[in-house]
Write a structure and sequence with these properties.
CATH superfamily of one domain in chain B: MetI-like
Strand content of chain A: under 5%
Distance between the termini of chain B: 46 Å
Largest sheet of chain A: 2 strands, antiparallel
Structural class of chain A: mainly alpha
Order of helices and strands of chain B: HEEHHHHHHHHHHHHH
Largest interface: A-B, 87 and 84 residues
CATH superfamily of chain A: MetI-like
CATH topology of one domain in chain B: MetI-like fold
CATH topology of chain A: MetI-like fold
CATH architecture of one domain in chain B: Orthogonal Bundle
Shape of chain A: globular
Strand order of the largest sheet of chain B: 1-2
Structural class of chain B: mainly alpha
Largest sheet of chain B: 2 strands, antiparallel
Number of helices of chain B: 14
Oligomer: heterodimer
Helix content of chain A: over 70%
Chain lengths: 284, 303
């Protein structure tokens, strides 16, 4: 009797999990399948498999809809941001972890506070700041450089937080030994500590990279021109403004193109990403 | 020896981060306080000091209250659903088996996708012509639509004032829940094995065990989750902005979509910044209340 109840409960749990898993996965599968169908097929059989795989949807999205251009913009901004963010963040984190000075706790707290501020608190002042900061005759507003600099600044709190924790776990004897050997502070950092921190740098890079690739709100306010549009902005604009619904297949292909790099990166590094998210969520 | 150039080293290594953070984050935060005290349409560069007028106006603005109410609905219904589903799924996928690990990773898929993709995908899910929802309802007895003479129902879900907000909330839950499953899974993993086994031996079963053992031990993770829900539901933007633009008839308007409209459509920057400050204060206040209310957990341990 008891056993029957137990197995009944187990079946119910399994059923619940199956339903939930389907709810998560089905929209994603549907999107992917639709990206491979012809226009008429999408309307005639939303649930069916494509009779023939229409890879040309992807080339249409890539070329005709202009996704290629947005893709390259996103690649430039994301890469440039990471290239500045990682060394700048690591340098600050190293100081916070190893070089206590009067007021360093307060400064560290100020950095972490940035994780609490909602982006929209600063959006209006930031909009004017970007308009007023000039390099020569051009303002930083509506430039990839401007967006990059803002992305670095807004990614710093989390990056410094994670990397400070990472540097704290490295044994102190290492840098002390290197110092005794006559290496200066800088040399110890670049030659000894940074290579040791490589796993932490990779995780922070992947984690930030995913967030930056996906970012929408800041780009929406700071990038008005088609020329500099990133991928999320570009695809949103196709749907919302240009109503690119004439070619449904290409539109869904565009969505897949935005999603795929992130999903692949996530799947490769999923264990590390979970750890980082949990560390940030629970200790932060 | 060790102190040689220490100060110079600290200054040069902190400077780039401090400069970027100071100029692009701290300075705008301070400016926001100032902006909210001025009447300013941006273009004219003519700023008039109006004191707290922007805030007074905000409190008399019915759109603001309607938006705040929608944020509250998202918190209550979306947040409630996320907590229930999150705990249930975390409870159901305990253990370090291969399958459960893969499942937990899959549940996080929506959360690591761009909100733009999520919003557009769900716009199409709700689409009356090609969407999954329409074909699902047709599948389950919606066939009367094809009866002779019947008007085929083509009204879209997101265009319907009564259905738009619930539809957005469902999408919000779909997008967010994986993160909370991960949090609760970590919480369950922290429960010492001995406690779980001892309670089993004591004959604590099923729902009773869940309520008396699992739930109290999940208290601290639960608190964190509620704080995250407060922040994330009061700061919803992209999802609503892309799916409904706050419509139809402002029936899905939330604080931040209204802020965007005030700033970048109406060019009323003072009002927009006042709204941003109000949003921040509300988030802080609600978080504070939640932390106070949940300080004592039901098992009697003080956090």
């Amino acid at each position: 009797m008891k056993r029957a109840m137990d197995s009944g409960k187990k079946a119910l749990t399994t059923l619940g999990l199956i339903v939930f898993t389907l709810a998560v996965v089905v929209p994603l599968l549907w999107m992917t399948l639709t990206s491979l169908k012809s226009g008429p097929e999408i309307f005639a059989s939303p649930w069916g498999l494509p009779a023939k795989i229409h890879w040309e949807n992807f080339s249409h999205a890539w070329q005709t809809a202009g996704i290629a251009h947005f893709f390259i913009n996103s690649l430039i901004v994301t890469t440039a941001t990471l290239a500045i963010l990682i060394p700048v963040g690591a340098m600050a984190a190293y100081i916070f972890a190893r070089y206590p000075f009067p007021g360093s706790k307060f400064l560290f707290g100020t950095f972490l506070g940035g994780m609490m501020f909602p982006q929209f608190l600063t959006i209006v002042p930031l909009f004017f700041l970007m308009n007023s900061l000039r390099i020569g005759a051009f303002s930083l507003y509506d430039t990839k450089l401007g967006l990059t600099v803002v992305y670095v600044a807004y990614s710093l709190p989390f990056t410094v937080f994670v990397l400070t924790g990472f540097f704290q776990t490295l044994p102190k004897e290492l840098d002390e030994a290197a110092m005794i050997d006559g290496a200066g502070h800088s040399k110890v950092f670049w030659r000894v500590m940074l290579p040791l921190a490589k796993p932490g740098l990779i995780v922070v890079g992947i984690f930030n990279g995913i967030g930056l690739w996906n970012e929408y709100s800041l780009a929406l306010v700071l990038i008005p021109s088609e020329e500099n549009r990133t991928l999320p902005l570009g695809i949103a604009n196709l749907v919302m403004v240009e109503h690119y619904q004439s070619d449904w297949g290409a539109l869904f292909a565009g969505l897949v193109i935005v999603m795929l790099p992130v999903l692949i990166a996530y799947w490769i590094f999923r264990e590390k990403i979970h750890e980082t998210m949990l560390a940030g969520a629970i200790k932060g | 020896m060790r102190n040689r150039g220490r100060t110079a080293f600290i200054v040069t290594y902190l400077a780039p981060a401090a400069l970027l953070y100071g100029v692009f984050v701290i300075w705008p935060v301070l400016q926001a306080i100032g902006f909210s005290l001025f009447k300013w349409s941006g273009l004219s560069s003519k700023k008039t000091f109006v004191g707290l007028d922007n805030f007074k106006q905000l409190f008399h603005d019915s759109v603001f209250w309607e938006a705040l109410l929608h944020n509250a609905w998202i918190f209550v219904f979306g947040g409630g659903a996320i907590l229930i589903v999150g705990i249930a799924v975390a409870h159901g996928t305990q253990g370090e088996g291969r399958l459960t690990k893969v499942l937990r990773s899959v549940y996080l898929f929506p959360n690591i996708m761009s909100l733009v993709v999520v919003a557009i995908l769900w716009e199409f899910v709700y689409d009356p012509h090609i969407g999954l929802v329409t074909s699902l309802t047709n599948l389950f007895g919606g066939s009367h639509a094809s009866a002779p003479g019947a008007v085929v129902q083509n009204t879209s879900i997101l265009g319907n004032p009564a259905k738009a907000l619930p539809a957005v909330i469902i999408t919000f839950v779909w997008f967010s829940v994986g993160f909370y499953i991960m949090l609760f899974s970590a919480g369950i993993r922290q429960i010492p094995q001995e406690v779980a086994e001892a309670s089993k031996l004591d004959g604590a079963e099923g729902l009773f065990r869940f309520r008396k053992i699992t739930l109290p031990l999940l208290w601290s993770v639960g608190r964190i989750s509620v704080i995250y829900l407060v922040i994330n539901t009061l700061n919803v933007f992209a999802l609503v902005f892309l799916m409904t633009q706050g419509g139809p008839d402002r029936k899905t308007e939330v604080m931040l979509t209204y802020l965007y409209e005030q700033a970048f459509v109406n060019s009323d920057y003072g009002a927009a910044t006042a709204l941003a400050m109000a949003n921040f204060v509300i988030v802080m206040a609600v978080s504070g209340v939640v932390l106070r209310l949940t300080r004592k957990d039901p098992s009697g341990a003080v956090q």
